[in-house]
Amino acid sequence: MSLLVTNLLKCGSETLNRYKKCTDEAFPGAVEWDFPITDQFIALAEPHLGEDGEDGIRVVISSGVVDRLTDAWNAAMEYSGQSSDPHFLNVGDVDEAIERSMHWLMLHELHHFQMGHFKLKGGMGLVETSQSVAYSLASRSESDTPSLIEALPPEERKPAERCLELQADHDTIDMMLDGYSNTNWPELRFLAACNFMIMILIEQEEQIAKSNLTRTHPKAATRIFQLLGHLASMYLIPAKIKAQEKGLARIDPNDLPPDEEIAAFQTEVVYPAFADAALIAKANSADAIVRELGDFTDLIADIGALQIPSDNVALKTEGAIEYAELEALNFKLMQMLDLPRYV
Question: I want to staple 147 with a disulfide (CB 3.0 to 4.6 A). Which of 93, 122, 242, 306 is the partner?
Answer without folding.
Answer: 122
